[in-house]
Structure formats: structure tokens, C-alpha cells
Amino acid sequence: MPTHYIPFKDTNYFSSLICDYLDEREYLKPFYNRFPKLENFEKQIEEKQINYNKNHRSDLVKVLMQQYENLSISSITLTNIDLLKHGTTFTVTTGHQLNLFTGPLYFFYKIVSTINLCKELKAAYPHFNFVPIFWMATEDHDFEEINFFNFKGKKVQWNRKASGAVGELDLKGLDHVYEVFAAQLDKSENAKSLKKLFQQAYLDHDNLTEATRFLVNKLFSVYGLVILDGNDPILKKMYLPYIAQELIEQTAFEKVSKTNQAINALPSNYKIQVNPREINLFYLNKNLRERILENEGVYSVLDTDIRWTKDELLTEVNEHPERFSPNVILRPMYQEIVLPNLCYIGGGGELAYWLQLKSNFEAQEVTFPMLLLRNSVLLVTEKQKEKLSKLNVSFADLFLNQNDLMSKVTKSISDIKIDFTPQKEHLQKQFEDLYDLAEQTDKSFRGAVAAQEVKQIKGLENLEKRLLKAQKRKMEDVLERVKTLQDELFPRQSLQERYLNISEFYLEYGEGIIQSLIENLEPLKAEFLILDISNQ
């Protein structure tokens, strides 16, 4: 299938930190373990084999089988779960919030990147097995971030009051959301499939965890994806010693704070993604997920009457580890303790905060995984490609700020050359002669020459801008077609993958859209993919 690639740094949509990470800048190497190259996985496997607690494997498989109990499980997923019993099996993991109906497109790109990397690793290291894991963020409590998806320019939203972990939310009100969504669909077979998928996921289950697990399994079980809910008593028991240590010693606060200082001292002005708290755990119970605080030996839960002494708190941890929920600082470590994981695949924002965490992993003697930027994709049709060609606009041009794009197109098709560079150079040459003359008199004359040069150069620049503006008016029809096309592919001047939902493409291409992603996404290529989906 026709594809085109653009370096991430040339898209202008990725932070300097991520671009420098992809370039393997020397000063960033202390913040990660190994760069995600195929040949580097050999050492990562060796390290994880030694470091991972072998006793966790049987409990992990037990939990997974319990969580899949009410699902139709594919033979390949069942095989992958069974393989986790063995010391030669490792995982590649991605995770995501429980977005309504999968949320933005990059939900799919994360999962497909994970599935495809496991295939590459199996081909390169045939004596080992690699299982793709989707870690559901069931303990998250940011309901406003997940309660909608965009469809044909409109927000389909689930409005209700919510508190506590989102995974435990009942699905009240989603029957109305279904009606709103279904009313916007046509009567095609793909539309019927979408309606059925939404109905089965959200109207036939009891909570958001069950709904999301069903939905993701329905979409990806044929590719062997294994879905894991970390909000589980058995898994939390594996994590129990680290919970206790965090509460009493507060190591993460010290280690991550020092790392943040080190990042701030780097030559580039990187943005710190997350800041640690003294205690990086929430207390989790029915309709409750609030921070745990400590003040002079007394532990409490924010905005509640719950209090413990140190001994009482440790008793609570030992008896109910499932009530302790890691925040963004500790969740990655929890995941790496539970799983025989080699690599985490995430977006730019995720990788940015993972780069803050290595020192805490080292302090806890937990292997830090390789960090891989997920695939990013722009889906285009043959019709859109033809329009681009006729307008003489390249794929790279589309990533420009819209005003810059309009200027570039205007200059490229204008009969008049809208570039006063030769005139400016000629003017500067004239002023060089005046500066030579100024050397023969006093400094005040040199200042007058400099002021006049600035004034005249600025005058030429203003004339250039006015000429460009006049040409834009003259070419308004062409520019409007360019603008319309960019707006189609970059809705609201954002990356398509961050705004659109898979349903718009599923309506046109059905399950072929997922198969196309499976066939074309190359997780280790580290470039932005332009994918022609016309032939699905």
C-alpha cells in the first residue's frame, strides 16, 4: 500500500525532548536504559530474565484467566496467556485511559505498534516469545478526559456525575449516548457493525472496565492482544512491599525530584511533565480515589475523615493492598513489577514523564524498560492525494501552520516573485559604502546611517508583506481549496490522530482499516507515517 514518511522533528508537532530522544542526544542517555533498536533487545531480555520475579508468572496467568472469564477469547490470545507461564516469554506493553468508544485514533496506533513490535521481536529472537499487552487505566479518575469522542465534527458525550476510579463506573446514561450516535449513522453494513459494537460493549455490561475489555478484545483478539486490568487484589499483592516502602520512606519523591533538577540543568529548555509528591499513592475504595497525606506521623486521606497511625496504615496495606493506587509517578513501576516487560510504547507526553523515573527504578532495583514512541499516522484517501497534487502541495507542507502554508502556496503559484531578498541585498550593499564613508567622520553620522538602513529594510519588508497579502486576495479560490483540504486532514489545526475517532473510517472501510494499520505500521522506524487507505 502506498506510504510516505516524514521525520518526527519535521512535523512541528513533537516536543524538543522527544525529537532529541529520537536523535539519541548524548546528554539524555542517563535518563533511559537502552534505546529501542532491534539489536538492543538482547541485553534487555537478559536483564529482565534475571530481575523479574519468576513466582509472579503463575499469579499473572491466574489473574488474566479470571479477567477473561466472561469473554470470547481467541485461540491466539489464549496461547499468549499460557506462554506467560514460561521464563522465555516476555511482554511489550502499552496502556491507555478507558476512553469512550476508544476515543482518538492514536488509541489504535498504540495497540498496533505493540502487536507489530512483538512480531518483529519473534522474528529476530525466535527462541523467545513476546506477548502484546494492553494495560487498561481502570484506576484513573479523570472522567472528563474520557467521557466523549468526536464524530463528524461533533462531540458525542456521556454526561453524568462521577467519582472514584473510572473503571468501576456503572454505565448509566450510555443508552442515550448510543441513541445520539446511532442517529448519525447511515444504513450500511459497516454502520450496523458499529452500532452493534457500541451496544454490546456499553449496553450489555455493568461497568466501564468490562465494557472497555469487551470492546478492545472484540477489535484485537484476532491479533493475540492480551488485556490486563491492574486494579486487582492478586496483582496488588505483588506490589505490596513497594507500597509500604513508598508510604514510609518516600523514596520516589527524593529520586524523581533530583532527576527533575538534572533535566532542568540540561542545555535544552525541556518541560517537566510531572512533579512527585511526598507520597505518590491514592487510597482507593468505592467512589473514592484520593491522595494519601502524612503529617507528623499521622496518615490521612485527602478530603475524608480517614486517619491512621504508621502501624495502622501498614496493617491496612497488608490486609488490603488493592486499596492503594499508584499515581503517574508509580504506576509505571507497578506495571514493570507485575509484567515480564521489555518495552513500553507510548506517546510523546508519556515518554517524557517516563524519562523522569529511571532513578527511582534503580533505587527499587526494578529493570527500567525500553521506551518506544508509538507510531503516528495521517490517514489519506486517493481523492485527497489527487487534490494535493493538483494544488502542488506536498505532504510535508500540510504540517505547516495554516498561515505559513497559505504564504508558501501563494509564493509558489504567483506569477510575480514575492521575495524582496535581492532588493534587500542590494540595499545593504549600498549601505556598506555609506558605512565606509561614516568611518571618515564622527560616530553620530554612523548612527544615522544605521538608523536609515533599519528603516529602509523594514520598509521593504512591509512592501513584501503587502504584496503577499494582495496576491493572497487574488488567489483566494485556490487558497480556500488548500485550507479546506488541510482542515480535513488536520481538524482544528491538530493532528488527525488526536481528534478523530476510528468510527469515521470504519464506516467507509470496515475492519479493513485495522488490517491496513497492522500491515503498514513499523514501530521501530521512528518516522511519521502518511498512509493511503483508498484501496481497503
Task: Provide a short characterization of the protein structure.
With 536 residues, the chain is of the alpha/beta class.
Written overview of the protein:
This protein is globular. α8 packs antiparallel against α9 (208-220), α8 crosses α22 and α10 (233-249) packs antiparallel against α12. With 536 residues, it is α/β, with parallel strands linked by helices. The mean pLDDT is 93. It has 23 helices and 15 strands. The strands form four sheets. The chain has a five-stranded parallel sheet, sandwiched between helices. It has a five-stranded antiparallel sheet with strand order 10-9-8-7-11.
Quote the distance from N terminus to C terminus.
9 Å
* Major sheet details: 5 strands, parallel
In the sheet with the most strands, the strands line up as 6-3-2-12-13
Q: pLDDT below 50 for ≥5 consecutive residues: which ranges?
A: none
Keywords for this structure?
536 residues, 23 helices, 50% helix
List the helices and strands and how they pair.
Elements (H helix, E strand, L loop, with lengths): L2 E4 L9 H7 L18 H11 L4 H12 L7 H9 L5 E8 L9 H19 L4 E8 L6 H4 L1 E4 L2 E4 L16 H10 L5 H15 L4 H13 L5 E4 L3 H17 L1 H14 L16 E5 L2 E8 L2 E4 L5 E2 L1 H10 L4 E3 L4 H8 L2 E6 L1 H7 L3 H7 L5 E4 L3 E4 L1 H9 L4 H4 L3 H12 L7 H18 L4 H32 L1 H14 L13 H7 L2 H9 L7 E5 L4
Parallel strand pairs: 2-3, 2-12, 3-6, 12-13, 14-15
Antiparallel strand pairs: 1-15, 4-5, 7-8, 7-11, 8-9, 9-10
